[in-house]
Amino acid sequence: MVSLERSKKKVQLWKKAIVHFLLCFVMGFFTGFAPTGKSSLFSTRNIAIPKIPQSNQTQPNILHHARLESQTFNKPLSDETTTTTITTVASEWSNLNDTRHSEEVLEEEEEEEGEERQEQEQDQDQDQDQEREEANGEFLNPRRLLIIVTPTSAKDQNRGILLRRLSNTLRLIPQPILWVVVEQQNEDSNVSEILRKTGIMYRHLVYKENFTNIHEEVDHQRNVALNHIEHHKLSGIVHFASLSNVYDLSFFDQLRAIEGFGTWPMALLSANKKEVIIEGPVCDSSEVMGWHLKKANNSTDERPPIRVSSVAFNSSILWDPERWGRTSSIQDTSQDSLKFVRKEVLEDETKLMGIPPDDCSKILLWNLPLST
């Protein structure tokens, strides 16, 4: 009997131990499946509580700090996520505003550049319109041909230098221009070569006659040029340009304004003498009132000699008799066309136009012969 009771007690002890073991096992098993997102009593998270210096603080303050730490510890993760989301949205909104501001600045700069381009295009269009108007004006009213007649002589040692100097001046004149150069026939002459290199439209005329008087030879050369103009009916303004002449370029613009005859004062310079002699007309505006005389005490009634370098005329007087009253326009080698021009100039001063028209006393032409 005693042994049976002992065996029953041992069996009950084993049953209790097994029950406790099963309970612990079940508790541990379900604890393992518990959610870890929230804090619980089973969490082993350590809380760092700042040390509070010892002072006369009361117990309620300590409890208050503990409650704050507990609230911070037990704060759900959703609050932190919401804060992060708000911060992200704010930063994206700020970036969007910055992008919009940059786009506005770029649009303003593009608008300013567009306005500047429009202004430049308008200026260019105005310049082009002005150029077209000037071109149309030149087309409707073309420049008149200038016929520059230059006699030369092989006896002049500086002829090549003076021809190149005058050609450099003529190249600066607006076209059209025709340079008629006359010389005595000579196989050794280099005038043709010089003229070809100038780039100016020219005509090179020669003659066979011999002269002992230099002034007679020069007048003959001028007549050769005038006969050529008359024969070919060249239409333009004729001017006799000596190799020793020095010009103001505005002088040639004034020549193109001549309708019939034009005249101007000319300054005669000397390389060896310290004096200047003025020859040509005395004007009131563009009206010729008289002539400069070399000697102030000249009391004769005769007309002063006219230097042809001080006169220009319309070439049509040589080949249009009906307009200018000449007896014939037929080519005549014995005809002295230069004498006719001088006669026309001296017969009626009202035919002459002083240039420049606003102030005929202004010097635009100088004659400076070089010593040989």
UniProtKB/TrEMBL annotation:
The keyword Transferase applies. Pfam families: Glyco_transf_43. Gene3D superfamilies: Spore Coat Polysaccharide Biosynthesis Protein SpsA, Chain A. It is found in: Golgi apparatus membrane. Its EC number is 2.4.-.-. It comes from the Eukaryota. InterPro entries: Glyco_trans_43, Nucleotide-diphossugar_trans. One of its GO terms (molecular function) is xylosyltransferase activity. Residues 88-137 are annotated as: Disordered. CDD domains: GlcAT-I. The chain crosses the membrane at residues 17-35. One of its GO terms (cellular component) is Golgi membrane. Involved in the synthesis of glucuronoxylan hemicellulose in secondary cell walls. Belongs to the glycosyltransferase 43 family. This is Glycosyltransferases. The gene is IRX9.
